[in-house]
Design goal:
The protein contains eleven helices and nine strands. With 298 residues, the chain is α/β, with parallel strands linked by helices. It has one domain: Rossmann fold (3-Layer(aba) Sandwich), CATH 3.40.50. The strands form two sheets. Strands 3-2-1-4-6-7-9 form a seven-stranded parallel beta sheet, with helices on both faces. Helix 2 links the parallel strand 2 and strand 3. Helix 4 packs parallel to helix 5. The longest helix has 29 residues. The radius of gyration is 20 Å and the shape is globular. The N and C termini lie far apart (52 Å). Bound molecules: nicotinamide-adenine-dinucleotide. Nicotinamide-adenine-dinucleotide (NAD) binds next to helix 1 and helix 6.
Length: 298
């Protein structure tokens, strides 16, 4: 699909970051937008911005971790706009912390929002797209879905699954008229890092307040994401690659280069260990600045 004018788009996580940038850029292309999120205050602002552009927009609450929300949104979408042209599964969350600190509920929360949401979305929207033999599914994963960065673990797990699902669907749906893309952003300046929860060990929490630890962690995240790109710029690239019907959609070629590096497995293993060590050292130094030696807590 080269021309988005008057075509219909459903978008999750549209209230902020990459989702908001997608919504505004697609509105400028003349698309009819059905935007959703759980943060209704931010979503209302995005709706206003789209109205100013002059595109048709419907904004609804859809908690992507709930199948019933997708069922309701799909019924409403089809009755108000008709057929689906572009389905963008974008909403995502992360929970930081090491394997010992993460509870089962943390894994479940992240997998529900980042992975099950896409399964729900496909379940409610795909049958009609298949009947019509047209449409484009775009799943927003991450470069953390190509390379096992050491943290955040549930996030990495969910994003690898989204990449796998997208690759499998790309082949399965190609001859049935449906295109599939997977977006693999690297570091983009959005709210995801600020809004993410982080888990600490019981021992650390006995000695320091959660507020203090969260403050240090957010400084660490800020340090690591200092070179983040603007979501608007990234999304301009994504849209062109979606129009070109690429499976992999990215703003930084380095994200994709990781795939090639896996052809040398021993080197790749070394790289993973080194990457993890660098991350651990950066974290250690940041906590040391506040007099906290993480070695005493491992
Ligand atoms: N920012 C980055 O560097 C980066 C890197 C790789 C991948 N991504 C991916 O990009 C996507 C968008 O994230 P972003 O960076 O724009 O973050 P963001 O936090 O700015 O936006 C995410 C949006 O998802 C919404 N959301 C969260 N839980 C939800 C739920 N249960 N139901 C519906 N909406 C929900 C939030 O309210 C928010 O509006 C995510 O899938 C994320 O994993 C981002």
């Amino acid at each position: 699909m080269k021309d988005f004018k008057n075509k219909n788009c459903f978008l999750t996580g549209a209230a902020s970051g990459i989702g908001r940038s997608f919504a505004l850029a697609l509105a400028k292309e003349g698309m009819n937008l059905y935007i959703s999120d759980i943060n209704m205050e931010r979503l209302a602002n995005v709706k206003k911005e789209i109205e100013k552009i002059g595109a048709k927009v419907i904004a609804v609450k859809c908690d992507v971790s709930k199948y019933e929300d997708f069922q309701n949104a799909a019924d409403d979408f089809h009755s108000k706009l008709g057929d689906m042209d572009l389905l963008i599964n974008n909403a995502g969350i992360a929970i930081g912390g090491g394997i010992e600190e993460l509870e089962l509920e943390d894994w479940k929360e992240v997998l529900d929002v980042n992975l099950w949401s896409i399964i729900y979305s496909l379940k409610v929207f795909l049958p009609r797209m298949l009947e019509k033999k047209s449409g484009h599914v775009v799943n927003v994963a991450s470069s953390a879905g190509l390379m096992g960065t050491s943290e955040p673990l549930p996030y990495v797990t969910s994003k690898f699954a989204v990449v796998g699902l997208s690759e499998a669907l790309y082949g399965q749906l190609y001859n049935r008229g449906i295109r599939v893309s997977v977006v693999v952003p690297s570091y983009i300046k959005t709210n995801i890092f600020l809004d993410s929860k982080v888990k600490f060990s019981k021992k650390l929490l006995e000695d320091y307040s959660r507020e203090k630890l969260e403050q240090i962690y957010s400084e660490l995240v800020e340090e690591m994401t200092i070179k983040s790109k603007s979501p608007n710029r990234a999304v301009r690239k994504y849209i062109q690659m979606i129009k070109d019907e690429n499976l992999y959609v990215f703003e930084a070629a380095s994200a994709i280069a990781i795939l090639a590096s896996k052809t040398e497995p021993r080197k790749y293993e070394e790289f993973l260990v080194k990457f993890n060590k660098n991350f651990a050292n950066t974290r250690k130094e940041r906590f040391l600045k506040y007099g906290i030696n993480l070695d005493d807590y491992s």
